[in-house]
Amino acid sequence: MSRLNGTDRPYDIVLFGATGFVGTLTAEYLAAHAPEGLRWAVAGRSERKLEELRERLPGGDEVGVLRADAAEPASLRELAEHARVVATTVGPYVTYGEELVAACADSGADYLDLSGEPEFVDLTYVRHDARARETGARLVHACGFDSIPHDLGAYFTVRQLPEGVPLRVDGFVTADATFSGGTFASALNQFARVRPMLAAERDRRRHEPRLVGRRAAAPTGAPRFAKEVGAWALPLPTIDPQIVARSAKALHRYGPDFRYRHYAAVRHLPVAVGGVAAMGALVTVAQLPPARRWLSDRLKPGEGPDAEKRAKSWFSVRFVGEGGGRRVFTEVSGGDPGYDETAKMFAESALSLALDELPATSGQVTTAVAMGDALTDRLRRAGIRFRVAATG
Ligand SMILES: NC(=O)c1ccc[n+]([C@@H]2O[C@H](COP(=O)([O-])OP(=O)(O)OC[C@H]3O[C@@H](n4cnc5c(N)ncnc54)[C@H](OP(=O)(O)O)[C@@H]3O)[C@@H](O)[C@H]2O)c1
User: Which Pfam families match (predicted)?
Assistant: First the structure.
């Protein structure tokens, strides 16, 4: 493997989509927390918006501006060649994202995004993982609430359990929050693409080497009352369990036989039933293009919960891990999951890839595999809580 990443590139980090809702929060986080001397730039399709953003940022004079458009592959290649790490918020990723992954894989730039779209992640694995391994680029998807608390939380839980034995971990997500136009658009797009998503998953399975001598899986659990957390547990069909299983496949610390199940935890049964019905209705409506357009128009790109709403939002992911005769209860928790904490997780992931001593990895890797302990430490210092609640 040759690592083409070099300090000869003008920027350590380029943030693409910096003028969007999460992009702006991420730029503000970087402006407030980047160490002195970090060379970083904001990038996007509108130079005017980028200049306005830069003027608002503390220390903005030091921040570069790059124009690039997802519809202009040459501009994305140039962007990738100017950066050691490219962080992009330009989604839905299945619509706008692939050319940038290709450009990063080809030029050896590390790439990270906020994609919670399994179809996109499977497609980039099949098309760009091999090239990224050749150039040394790390392609890290899902560096926001999807899937950092779950991926690093499962990793943290596993590390509290004995080594070399079969391990079982269940994750239970609770949150009180609202979402942005960008997230809503990505979710609707995803609900309308169930068939391509399943096809991309099959294609990935054909290309991915089989795990030999170990097992790691994330089967869908059944709805149940989970005594261990005192709530109704509903299987949550997000990308998170797939990401956790990929970390477990890559890292021997997860043991010879690892199983993860992912749930939403809801205290009251009527709320659980109502939630399932509402999700079913949304998925059904998303199949009809006019209804989908009508729904998308309710929440415009660039819009999202204001600071006051975000300040009242929170998340908690509780994990129950078992193995080798030991049981452990852990929790990852923080503030507004979708935006404030996502911007923090995303920016800290970019800083970790750019600055930390990390294990030698390349190709498509998860956050636990690429950055594990270093990123967990960063997030703890930044106020996201990782704790062991009880052991037995
Ligand atoms: N994983 C998670 O937990 C999580 C959390 C939050 C968001 N997300 C995802 O992050 C993404 C962004 O969300 P958001 O709320 O920030 O959305 P948003 O406000 O709509 O921002 C989208 C950004 O993409 C840019 N863009 C659109 N088309 C472009 C093109 N052709 N070329 C270059 N840039 C283009 C927009 O530029 P302009 O400013 O010029 O319009 C904007 O900067 C979504 O996919 C969302 O699902 C994930």
Answer: Sacchrp_dh_NADP
